[in-house]
Amino acid sequence: MAWLAPEAGFDADAWAAPVIGIASTLADHDSGWHGHRRGQLLYARQGCTRLTFGDRLCLLPPSRAAWIPGGLVHRAQMRQAVDYRSLYFTPDVCRQLPARPVVIAVSPLLEALLEPIAQAPFTQDWSQPRAHHQLALCVLEIAAAPVQPMDLPLPRDPRIAGQLPPAECLPPALDELSRRCGLSTRTIARAMQRDVGMGYQAWRQQWRLMRAMELLLLGHAVGHVAQELGFSAESPFIAFFRGMTGTTPAAFRRRPPG
């Protein structure tokens, strides 16, 4: 394992072992757009991370992990302090793992396997029986882990995508987007259905939910989150959040899903 300092560089593809691991605690960190041949499992032990791929946003809360296939260009943004572990697997190992990026639940067994593998030296001989079985079981657990709905597809139509604000800002209402794009609401509906599989209004609500979860995990008060997301008061926001998740914002913040 390498403990990675915030300012340190790291090349996951510079090593020959079938798996290598790193550990770090980063605050207000932006990896920038990058990619690597190895597939990556990013496990957030503490803190909240936003991952962006070409066609989707993913939220990585504590106690969950993101699987990022090799060769996929992505960006990780960490707000406040995030304590994480990353495992990087060679393409041969990745054949057993998902072909698309997903956020997965981390079982107690998988969590128990991640730490010793992350702590192994880069020169570890993974053909030794104990190490070999640890790695094989870890890969099986990743492949079998339940996928968590923590991602939001992004519209690809440049006429729409070009008029949307940064991910931190509330997307405009449909009528305002129509005015900005110079497109009818019906045309926007068709494009959104094609690109993201839902209408714009439903997509905007999904964005609100993901952003609400992110802000709550970062410790913001419920009233502040409601205001940020364009609700007139706390009560309609609480009703929205409960309707979408089955729990209240305050309960979610106290105990995020694991």
UniProtKB/TrEMBL annotation:
Species: Stenotrophomonas mori
Superkingdom to which the source organism belongs: Bacteria
CDD domains: cupin_NimR-like_N (cd06124)
Keywords: DNA-binding, Transcription, Transcription regulation
Residues covered by the HTH araC/xylS-type domain: 174-255
Identification of the protein by name: Helix-turn-helix transcriptional regulator
InterPro entries (alphabetical): AraC-bd, Homeodomain-like_sf, HTH_AraC, RmlC_Cupin_sf
Pfam families: AraC_binding, HTH_18
SMART domains per the UniProt record, alphabetical: HTH_ARAC (SM00342)
